[in-house]
Amino acid sequence: MWLIVYGIISSVILALYAVGFSLTYGVSGLPNFAHGALYILGGYAIWNLMNVAGLSIIAAAPLTVITCGLLGFGLYWGLLLRVRGIPLSELVVTFAAGVAILELLTWSGFYGIRYSLPVFWEESIEIFSVVIDGQRILVLATGVALVILLHLFVRHTRTGLAFRGLAQNERTALSVGIEADWIGSLSVAMGSGLAAVAAVVVLPLGMMEATIGYEVLIYALAVAIVGGLESTTGMVLASFIIGFAQTAAARYIGPKWMIIVPLAAIVLVLVVRPSGLLGKFKELEERV
Amino acid sequence: MQEAEVKVRKRRLERAIKARTDTVFVIASPGDILYVLAPRVVPMAILLLLPLFVGGYHSKVIVHACVVGLLALSWELLASCGLFSLGQSLFFGVGAYMAGAMDKYLHLPIWVTIPVATLGGGALCALLLAPVVRLRGVYFAMVTLMLPILFKQIIEAWGILGGTHGLSGLTAFPNEWLDKYLIIVAFITVLFGLRSLITSDYGLVLKAIADDDRAVMSAGINIYSRKVQALFIAASVASFAGAFITHHYQFAGFSVFALDWAILPLAAAAVGGTGSFAGAALGSMILVPLSEALRAMGGLRMAIYCAILVFAVLALPEGIFRFLERKYQEFETVIEVK
Fold this sequence. Notes:
The complex is a heterodimer of chains A (about 290) and B (about 350). Chain A contains twelve helices and two strands. Chain A has about 290 residues and is an all-alpha fold. In chain A, α1 packs antiparallel against α10 and α9 (about 210-225) crosses α10. Chain B is mostly helical. Chain B has a single domain (about 45-335), classed as ABC transporter involved in vitamin B12 uptake, BtuC. The longest helix of chain B is centred in the last third of the chain and has 27 residues, at about 225-250. Chain B starts with 7 loop residues before the first strand and ends with a strand. Classes of the chains: A mainly alpha (about 290), B mainly alpha (about 350). The interface between A and B is large, with 40 and 39 residues.
């Protein structure tokens, strides 16, 4: 029982890490390798808003999400726009920007016990004789809500469909009146905002440290590769596979095996199904 | 009174000795030979002679520049066959740990550890990455980014190979000159070796894989085995650099898997100009001394490398080397427009 409950929770955390990255990359084809940095920047922003500016969490959380969204917007117009269409340059530029942010945060002394966020809800409840604290329930609820909203958004709203159109064929998208730069920047901004949402709900579970940013990026990438792109279901499935495998490895073999799981999952999936678990054939052509 | 404005324009002419391609020259005089040889011989001569005149700290900078140069050359080889690596530190770290472990646990002499770590590191990295050579572009980059971080965490969590303390007290080079000249000569050899490799038939196939892998496949060539071979060569070069640095500092710790060793070669290649080995070499010779000047910034250095990298990608898409090459091979005169 313990395994199932905590497996679900760590899977949902992985899905939260991946949801923003998957929106920007999987749906609109823009690799945002600064994702991990934006995540931890979200934590930094909310900590400062609460402890320096003295706002309550109700006010600080939306402000953090908006700030990160605007940063993502700036990232697109400032850097990505100049290298649009050169996939590897897009990657290098966002990755370098992300590392720069993380290293600046480390340099400014952003680590240690001082930087911890309060949980929203102190109480804990018992499900199937397993005790879960309130924060993890909140993580669960946010994760489920975000995934469902994302699924509806990319399929049933005009903006969401425009995101997908941009990834499928940019020229055709232009010819039907989708403004590529506007939609692209919106997509990066939303992805960054989602990273901040994840940071706001997940970070109170532990300490904050700039190096977590790299971890978040790695998990987001692992989920994206294993699940196959453009498929929300694939993303959820991949999060669950990696999440459960990690929880099981940590419990039955030892915590030090946990770190092997994402890599093993990637290698296995690539050998068996190179397009990812639920990827489509077109993606296979692009990837392999 | 109105002064007549003199309109001028620049006229650029290719040098006559340069034939249709960039690499074939029509040589007619000793002057032409000098013209072709000078850009190849002069920088190498400077690099070879420099350690005789500067010592101490400055020779450390030269050694460091050559190590980063080797990593940048290895990156460039992978890039020229379409494999985009964000994990040069993986190859570097594997070589470093291999040499360190052989020295520490097997007490092998230095002339065994370095060659074995070079070839063994290359083979191990090629083996590790063989399942993912099917991935292209961004996806391959993602996996190479993850591997060194995982290696670092494995060593940290399992406490193998010295754990967080690293392997210390390893054998040093028998003398200081061997130390310096080994890396300089290796750097020059690899630079010219890879330049001639890439223009050979074998190298042309590698480049064709980057341009259009489907076409290479339809020519009946197994691109995956070629990619693994390229990985082996590139990883061997970087593993050599790792093995060297292990004996140079007499220490191997998991800092060899740090992002510095992935970002700095990438930035060097981007500054010097991707698509040419000389560009990667030039980039590292410019960037490393610059980064040594930034050493006082301490923790902020990585952020500055990244800023340089972003700047190079955005503002110097062709790189310094291509620019210099073009200027060297054309006459530029200012003529009046009538």
